[in-house]
Amino acid sequence: MIGKKCGVRRAAKIGLxxxxxxxxxxxxxxxxxxxxxxxxxxxxxxxxxxxxxxQRVPIAVTAxxxxxxxxxxxxxxxxxxxRIPGFTFAPFNAGQxxxxxxxxxxxxxxxxxxxxxxxxxxDVYFGRVSNAAFDFFDVDRIEVLRGPQGxxxxxxxxxxxxxxxxxxxxxxxxxAKVNARIGNFNTQNYGAYVTGPLFxxxxxxxxxxxxxxxxxxxxxxxxxDLKDQNSTSFRGQLLWTPTPSTEVTxxxxxxxxxxxxxxxxxxxxxxxxxxxxxxxxxxQDLRSTTPQEGFSERSSDLYSLKVQHEFPNGGELxxxxxxxxxxxxxxxxxAGVPQVNVVDDIxxxxxxxxxxxxxxxxxxxxxxxxxxxxxxxxxxxxxxFFRFVNFFGDGIDDRSAVRPATDPDDAVGGYRxxxxxxxxxxxVHGNYDFWDRFSLSAGVRVTYDEKEIVSSGFASGExxxxxxxxxxxxxxxxxxxxxxEGIADSADFTNVSPKASINFQATDDVLIYASxxxxxxxxxxxxxxxxxxxxxxxxxxxETANSYEIGLKxxxxxxxxxxxxxxxxLDYQDLQFQRFGPSLxxxxxxPDGFTVDPTSFGFFSTINAGDxxxxxxxxxxxxxxxxxxxxxxxxxxxxxxxxxxxxxFFTDDPGQDFIINQELNRAPRNKFAVSALxxxxxxxxxxxxxxxxxxxxxxxxRADFVDDNTIEDAFGxxxxxxxxxxxxxxxxxxxxxxxxxxDRYFSHVYVIGPGQIGTLGEPRMxxxxxxxxxx
Length: 775
Prior knowledge:
Layout (H helix, E strand, L loop, with lengths): L5 H9 L29 E2 L6 E2 L7 E5 H6 L5 H5 L5 E7 L2 E6 L2 E2 L11 E5 L2 E3 L12 E8 L13 E7 L8 E9 L3 E13 L2 E12 L3 E3 L5 E2 L2 E15 L2 E15 L4 E2 L6 H6 L8 E2 L6 E16 L5 E18 L7 E24 L2 E23 L21 E25 L2 E22 L27 E19 L4 E12 L2 E2 L6 H4 L3 E2 L2 E14 L4 E21 L2 E3 L7 E3 L6 E24 L2 E17 L13 E4 L7 E12 L6 E11 L2 E2 L8 E2 L2 E11 L5 E8 L7 E7 L2 E6 L4 E10 L1
Parallel strand pairs: 7-10, 14-19
Antiparallel strand pairs: 1-2, 3-9, 4-5, 5-6, 7-8, 9-10, 11-12, 11-45, 12-13, 13-16, 14-15, 16-17, 17-20, 18-44, 20-21, 21-22, 22-23, 23-24, 24-25, 25-26, 26-27, 27-30, 28-29, 30-31, 31-34, 32-33, 34-35, 35-36, 35-37, 37-38, 38-41, 39-40, 41-42, 42-45, 43-44
């Protein structure tokens, strides 16, 4: 059958278990285990681009089922990250999402860069910061692959990959589901899908999701609520089987968001915090002092065509063709206090076309191979304007390509970058059972990227036709941001990335394994050049990571327990890092030889900052001690040390390198999650109850290499859920709570000239839910 190939059969032949992480059955479907057995069931994933048993793939991957996504209300990467070892997510704004896996992350949101962690939706690659974070709905499963990926994926990913698979249209009669979730802060979330056959060889599915919630932060300056949520998503699919050996899937999807300001808040440090306190702001009471209330609007459209054909010799050919466009427009206050009214205004538009073709074949009983090619064409047009506003309520009224100051006392600086990326790659990966209990997996990827960018800048004081102060952050007018003409640059990058693993099946239930993989992230161009000279010198080199991993994986007590532990080392080189903050000045009396320039508000600079060593341990456990009860735990330890050269961050070139050792950003040293799910019948034929509770903890983590005050404090979150399932499984009623201890924590922290600023995570949320199913 299409999509169910040699991997399961091949691995079963020798009883092979490879170095995948444990898939949490706690997060599985309510009926994920047999009622008369405690044995853990098989979980199917597509981490190797074919359906396979989770325990049979040589990749570190955690899988979460669609039912679990719905029950736990995992609606975005922030909800997901706290449940995955080694994974963090920092949402500066909806269009500025920072993913981090095993300490590898990217924070440049410019037109000429991409994420270190790749996101795939039904095999379609999303790679930019502005389009990689979207709502999870109509999900069959989510897989998080840790470590470099590339020899089996269309686009390379140096840190890892998030693989999201939606539910397929069904030929097995009409199926439908409707759910509603309500709660405090006027939470109203609704979702539905319907699927079924239209003809003997044509099935269809339509799905819908609406998520709405009032803001939970009160702006004491205006009385308005900030940090609300308003999003709507649609997906339509057609599944055509013209022959028993061919599947053709067409997908059309759209998402729209329209949210208020996110209410940035100063941290408990010097700088602007005294202004926040004096104006009546409070972290504990969720009160902000935002002087310039903004907004965030995002939309995306996706069209894809997936064709799978199985040949008589057992080979399978897959083609995935996709086009998508994304639009992000937002304007928000940056500092969170009326005395420092700094407005950041961004308009980001991306059009992308991708084509992937891959072929999988069993060469013999002990050898199979996957080979493919991938092409990407991506065009991004991005504008960003910074305004130092001197009067309260002095908003931006002109939404045209150029946002001039509305008051002559405002300082304005802005830039526009138009980038086109063309990438083509070939990859091949094979699995060979070469001797009894030994298996070898190996592959290689060859990538060629070509990027072309045009940068232009605007500074109000530099243009005699526009009144105002000298430019702010962008301090020189160059090119023409209206027409997009400016300073051009181009670069191309070639990379060869191998991957190999060897697995020894010590016993039928214990595997000892070792693997090596090389990750690659393409070079590009940094964002926000402050002047023409910087625009002509914004190129950054690729970054690479050599990953070494050893571990043990076992299934114990008659398959009622799974336990994985792995140790890894990453040699992370030429890491790309963007910093926004004050300039530095040489100071021989300071511990590191430099201090912050007190006259500098800040500027953007993206450089190849240095190298890092990453040591880590990840462990995952799933245990069913009694029938109906599933316990789950995971833990990640990260020890990171980077050698960062700060020479390019100085106001004036100091004439020498300034290298210090520092932890990587957004890499907590300790992170863990524990959870329990208990399912049991209610009386005689009265249905079932599902009780679930989980606790997730993350130690503190850095947000900036230079500023020791930009620390996101440790936090712990407690969620719980109680669900009644009707005897015929048609109805479900739930009560739920999230962050039940009402912990205050920052989901993102950054630095600007006056100090350190953060955005708060959700407070205590609670409510009820109802689900109706038909099949």
